[in-house]
Amino acid sequence: MKKILSIFMVLAVLTLAVGCTQYHARGAGVGGAVGGAAGVLLDKKNRWRGGVIGAVLGAIAGASLTEVSMQASQEAARQNRPVEYRTTDGRGQVQAYPLDYNAETKCHKVQERVWEDGKLIKDEIKEVCEGHKTEQKY
């Protein structure tokens, strides 16, 4: 039990160190946790190795998916038209649709949808702003 607990602690630290922004860190963290857990369960001979390999691959995949979805949202807001990205193997798809613009805050609302293997895994509305927010309020 101590080994499994130490594995998850190391995986958590590794996945948090991978991301460069809070969104990348969140994507890497979720991907690393899922990948690490899957690696521990799948590698019966050496669970430590399976957990580390799974966490690294999951963190990379999670951060990459986050980067692609952020890029799609920013491009849709900047060009004020729908944007779609697909993986080369056709298993993944990201779509971003501009919805609204607030001239006072200089922020666009963009609907972002992510599919994996034809299944909708994320559907949310994001706010993409032109400048940097310096206050907590709008």
Give the termini separation: 48 Å
**Helicity level, as a percent range?**
40-55%
How many structural domains? 1
Radius of gyration: 18 Å
Total strand segments: 4
Major sheet: arrangement of strands: 1-2-3-4
SSE arrangement, N to C: HHHEEEE
Number of helices: 3
Overall, the morphology is elongated
Tell me about the biggest sheet? 4 strands, antiparallel
Low-confidence stretches: none
User: What structural class do helix, strand and pairing data support?
Assistant: alpha+beta
Query: Overall mean pLDDT score?
Result: 78
Strand content: 25-35%
If you had to describe this structure to a student in words, what would you say it looks like?
The chain has 138 residues and is of the alpha+beta class. The protein has one domain. Helices cover 51% and strands 26% of the residues. It has three helices and four strands, in the order H-H-H-E-E-E-E. Helix 1 (2-18) runs antiparallel to helix 2, helix 1 runs parallel beside helix 3 (47-79) and helix 2 runs antiparallel to helix 3 (47-79). The longest helix is centred in the middle third of the chain and has 33 residues, at 47-79. The N and C termini lie far apart (48 Å). The model has no long low-confidence stretch (mean pLDDT 78).
